[in-house]
Amino acid sequence: MNNSRRRFLKIASLSVFGLGAKGVLDVAAGTTPDAAALTGKYEDGATALKAKRWAMVIDMRKFTSPEDYSRVIEACHSIHNVPSIEGNQEIKWLWTDTYEATFPDDMNPHLSQEVLERRYLLLCNHCENPPCVRVCPTKATFKRADGIVVMDYHRCIGCRFCMAGCPYGARSFNFGDPQPHIKAINPKFPARTRGVVEKCTFCSERLAVGQLPACVEASNGAILFGDLDDPNSPVRKALNENYSIRRKPSVGTQPGVYYIV
Amino acid sequence: MYNGKYIIPGIVIFVGLFTFPFWSNLLTPKYERPQIALPAGEKECIEPVGYMRAEHMHILNLWRDEALREGKRLYVASNGKQWEISLQNTCMKCHANKADFCDKCHNSNSVSPYCWDCHVAPRGNQ
Amino acid sequence: MVEKLLKGSPAYYIWLLFLGSVVGLGGFTYLFQLKYGLAITGMSRDVSWGLYISQFTYLVGVAASAVMLVLPAYFHHYKQFKKMIILGEFMAISAVLMCMLFIVVDMGQPQRMLNVILHPTPNSVMFYDMMVLMGYLFINLLVGWVTLEAERHDVEPPKWIKFFIYLSVIWAFSIHTVTAFLYAGLPGRHYWLTAIMAARFLSSAFCSGPAILLLLVFVLRRLTGFNPGREAVQTLTKIITYAMCINVFFYLLEVFTAFYSGMPGHQHPLVFLFAGHGGHSYWVNGWMWTAVVFAFLSLALLIPPQIRDNEKVLPWALVMLVIASWIDKGLGLLIGGFTPNPFEGITVYAPSVPEILIALGIYAFGLLVLSLLWKIAIEVKKEAGTF
């Protein structure tokens, strides 16, 4: 090809590239004119509840009738659009099981009948040292500074490594579309889609507007919730006055849910 | 040109296909911005209309990350007004008629956001 | 060299067409899974990983096993392996591709898979797994292609390839160690929480991978007359035998630790796998005992040199070894980790038909890639006179 024609083509393509590059760099730096002009600020609401380390104390002695259990579970599952699915692909954020299933490390056949025969409430323990957070490859689940283990459904890729990592079986996976199985949709809260993992969130959206978690409110004082770092919180007071146990202490996760049995 | 009787028609067909978007739009009726149903209540969105039209997805992504990941659920707009960060409870409270507001523009521009796989769409204009 | 895969005998084309149709069937089933979710599999809230991840685990081992040829051939200059080493490298490529596909079909939101790169998380083993698998694929493609090209032109490969060859040796160990770490770092799964998980994975890989390679090479010999050389086969069989002995020994170490210590958390999964629960036996029990019988039978045929070197008996021994290791490292591993569940209960898992069809589709794809790559290698060797 003619030398000057080559030169012309080289300069022309470089110029076109250069012209386009400014636009690309602008977008990359977030300095497109519109975006720079107006940006709001993000803050905590005035009524938001704050803590250094949220924790829960469940006084199992106060759960005496089936209604006590179903009331708290229904409170949680109904406002969070948790589907009711039959079979082993179920989704549960808060549920009940036997003593042996809840505290297998602490089993002894001569425990008092009352303790052995009671049903126990199980949920995500929002551990201090959560294995699920350690293994998540996208930080879709992560620990907030206030101790809550958050689930970001937008980022979850559905690999279920967190489910394998959780020693407490606290996490559920949406094997199919959950929406047909939701009894009555709460329009104030989203549902989830198939292919993501979900679990109890310690009602972080309620804490942000100054409300206690739904199960705590529905429990008539049987479930306490508060800041473990505050010596005057309801949880610390209850733990001071009663003997408490946690699930599977030997795995070192430091769970944030305490049980008074 | 060697094989010219195949190459020239081939080039013509290729140019025709390549410029299809341009001449097909010249031949079909002009794109008209859909008539959308404005919300009944508030007259102003969280930010001015032009900004929202261009950047609503950008703002929604920022809202998503700030609310869910950072735990900051209050938005102080550039005009100082405060809003609760929630697609369902703030945005859709005003834009309750999803079919005549959101979907009209989305459908004609072939945009299908997957937000509604999880987020609960409102049920009509109140 | 790609043009070499385009011309073949009618049987070659029919084979590719057959594989393509199995891939199509698997792909069609996968479309159902994309629409309806993983609900169509046999997985459950308690057994949240199943057939897909088990096959991924086994195939990472097969991919890593190329190192059993590369290390002697390039590091110790064992020339007898040089003839068939390209086949091992190409098998590694096929295996890694299958691994990646098994992960993709297991994901609940596969279109978000780039989130792992967009939001890197160095504390997550799965992040490293993705990186090392991609790296290993690249290394094997590079090394395989460059060395084959050099063979075609009858020259020594360029000097810089040595760096990648040595890197591939270390990388092979690393991909399988990282995969083992996926399991061995989880505090609640007693069957997997063992320090020798990576060692077991590697020993299992180094017997099963070369065994699969040898079986495929025997098929290749029957089809094309390609002879890797008697000494190469015998040396590789010795390596397979030693690795299988270590593999079985390691499993027995697990059994000892569980039962001599008496720790219920360690015993329960083994008891469930081999004897069921509460007097009730499950399909996986027969599966595991088959693995035991085949493992010992294969060793009985591999350890005595006269039987090992008998090429009429060897394929049977290798088939039994592959089945035994596939059961142990595949579904046996997964079911053992998730059963009993964290509540000491039993949730039975069995793969569903759609799950199996998708898995078969991926295997067919792997065989397709293998067939195409080996066709190129064989044609190049014929052209270069090194057949």
Automatic annotation (TrEMBL), chain A:
Lineage, top-rank taxon, reads: Bacteria
**Pfam families in the record, alphabetically?**
Fer4_11
Record's Gene3D superfamilies? 3.30.70.20
Alphabetically sorted, this entry's keywords are: 4Fe-4S, Iron, Iron-sulfur, Metal-binding, Signal
Record-annotated 4Fe-4S ferredoxin-type domain positions: 147-176
Q: Which GO terms describe its molecular function?
A: 4 iron, 4 sulfur cluster binding; metal ion binding
What residue stretch is flagged as signal peptide?
1-21
Name this polypeptide is given: Reductase, iron-sulfur binding subunit, putative
Automatic annotation (TrEMBL), chain B:
User: Key word Membrane present in the record?
Assistant: yes
In its UniProt entry, the species of origin is given as Nitratidesulfovibrio vulgaris (strain ATCC 29579 / DSM 644 / CCUG 34227 / NCIMB 8303 / VKM B-1760 / Hildenborough) (Desulfovibrio vulgaris)
Its ancestry begins with: Bacteria, Pseudomonadati, Thermodesulfobacteriota, Desulfovibrionia, Desulfovibrionales
- The lineage's top-level taxon is Bacteria
SUPFAM superfamilies, alphabetically? Multiheme cytochromes (SSF48695)
State the protein's name: Cytochrome c family protein
Alphabetic keyword roster:
Membrane, Transmembrane, Transmembrane helix
The record ties this protein, via NCBIfam families, to: cytoc_DsrJ
The transmembrane segments are 6-23
InterPro entries with a match to the protein in the record: DsrJ, Multihaem_cyt_sf
UniProtKB/TrEMBL annotation, chain C:
Query: Transmembrane ranges?
Result: 12-32, 52-74, 86-105, 125-148, 160-185, 191-218, 239-262, 282-302, 314-336, 356-374
- InterPro entries per record: DsrP-like, NrfD-like
What is its membrane topology?
Answer: Multi-pass membrane protein
What compartments host this protein?
Cell membrane
Which keywords does this Swiss-Prot/TrEMBL entry list?
Answer: Cell membrane, Membrane, Transmembrane, Transmembrane helix
Spell out the GO cellular component terms annotated for this protein, sorted alphabetically and separated by semicolons: plasma membrane
The protein's matches in Gene3D superfamilies, at most eight in alphabetical order, are given as:
Formate dehydrogenase/DMSO reductase domain
Please give the Pfam families that the UniProt record associates with this protein.
NrfD
Q: Which family does it belong to?
A: Belongs to the NrfD family.
PANTHER family linked? POLYSULPHIDE REDUCTASE NRFD, PTHR43044
Q: What is this protein called?
A: Putative sulfite reductase-associated electron transfer protein DsrP
Originating species:
Nitratidesulfovibrio vulgaris (strain DP4) (Desulfovibrio vulgaris)
